[in-house]
Amino acid sequence: MKNEIVNKHDLTFKEVFSQKKIAENFIKNNIPKEALAIIDMGSLELQKDTFINEELQENFSDLIYKVKINNKESYISFLLEHKSYKDKMTIFQVHKYILEFWTAKVHKEKKKELPVIIPLVIYHGEDKWNLKTDLKEMIPGFNELPKYFRERVPTFKHDLINVNEYEEDDFEKYTKLTAMMLKAFKYAFEENLEVVLRVFLLALEEAKKEVELDTLIYYGEIYLKYIELTNSEIKEDDIREEIKRLDGKGDLTMSILEQREEKGLKKGIEKGKKK
User: Fold this and answer.
1) Which residues contact 201 (CB under 8 A, 6 or more apart)?
2) How many CB atoms are located within 10 Å of the residue 105 CB?
């Protein structure tokens, strides 16, 4: 199970969101303006640390960016919800993750102050997400409780971005490149291969309007690898057939496939020389 998760989602998620321009574009479109006003996006810096222990690894992939909020050291964490179904334990798992983060800061780094950490949970599963993201909403009559009680309930709240529920219009707020890579996650569990390939080819064509060719080929290759991981039965012939149906809108994908063939041929020649 663990290897399957890593192979299908973890590596692609990390490769995509470790790109600062995609992470920044995603943050700007999913955090309120009043919060963005005190975030120094120029200070955004990817961290090597991870706070996913073995227990949490079955649920999330994580990527952490260090950033200044109100001129103080803070963090924004991208958490990809692995499972294709909603899990009522997510709210507790997210905050177990935050507690691990803070514990490490105090225990290992000897910090006396806690940094702000914003958890952004990205969900792309098949089930509709109708679970609470704020612990206080799970306590009946919380707002009617005396102040004494309200002050002693931990603030457990996280943002949830459900990519699976995105309509085509929802992608328009992002750059074409970010939108393209989010579509990879949205259609990760789509069983109709024709739909998966059509979305990929058209997203690639859209991104071509904004991105340089080398960059687009790089991301196109990531997307294509992800499709192959999540659709083990896919063959290059399927891709070529779908390109034909789109009346020439798959030229870029053909270039990616041809480059793959060239790399494969070169590897074969090198192996032959070694023998």
Assistant:
1) 242, 243, 246, 249, 250, 253
2) 19
pLDDT of 266 reads 38
Q: Tell me the C-alpha distance between 55 and 93, whole Å.
A: 9
Decide: 133 and 159 in contact? Cβ < 8 Å: yes
Rounded Cα gap, residues 24 and 46, in angstroms: 11
Residue ranges of alpha helices (H) inside the chain are 2-5, 11-17, 20-28, 33-36, 54-57, 90-107, 147-150, 176-186, 193-207, 213-230, 236-245, 251-274
Per-residue pLDDT reduced to its tens digit, 26-76 = 999 999 999 999 999 999 999 987 877 777 777 788 999 999 999 999 999
Query: What is the rounded CA–CA span in Å between residue 180 and residue 171?
Result: 8
Per the document, the length of the chain is 275
CA distance 11 to 34: 33
Q: Residue 249: what residue type? A: K
* Residue-by-residue DSSP string for 171-221: GGGS-HHHHHHHHHHHTTT---HHHHHHHHHHHHHHHTTTS-HHHHHHHHH
Long-range interactions of 30-34: CB distance < 8 A, separation 24+: 30/120, 30/159, 30/161, 31/118, 31/159
Those residues of the chain that have pLDDT short of 50 are: 1-2, 5-6, 265-275
CA 118 – CA 77 distance, rounded (Å): 6
Instruction: Answer for the pair 87, 70: CB distance below 8 angstroms, yes or no.
Output: no
Q: Cα(59)–Cα(95) distance, rounded to whole angstroms?
A: 13
Name the CA dihedral angle for 168, 173, 176, 177, rounded to a multiple of 10 degrees.
-110
Pairwise CA distance, residues 254 & 260, whole Å: 10
